[in-house]
Design a protein that fits this description.
This protein is an all-alpha fold and 75 residues long. It has helices spanning 8-19, 27-37, 46-64. The chain has one domain (8-70).
């Protein structure tokens, strides 16, 4: 996603469906996928959720200490 190969919702969807809520490292991305699924029922916008996904992806890439394009996260 950070390299522009995936949209934020694609990243959260893939992470959520692969790992669910079981992996602490990616738990926030799973939560953001849940939030994305109910956007029309809340007061948050897709832009806000996308910004949070990007921030979490950057945090994970930094945590892994790898360049974003080589991090072991799809996209």
């Amino acid at each position: 996603m950070l390299a522009g190969e995936l949209k934020p919702w694609e990243l959260t969807f893939r992470i959520h469906h692969r790992y669910g809520h079981e992996l602490p490292l990616t738990e926030r991305l799973a939560e953001l996928d849940d939030e994305d699924a109910i956007l029309e029922h809340g007061d948050r916008t897709v832009y806000v959720v996308d910004a949070e996904v990007a921030a979490e992806a950057r945090r994970l890439a930094a945590h892994l200490d790898l360049p974003a394009e080589r991090a072991d996260i799809p996209g």
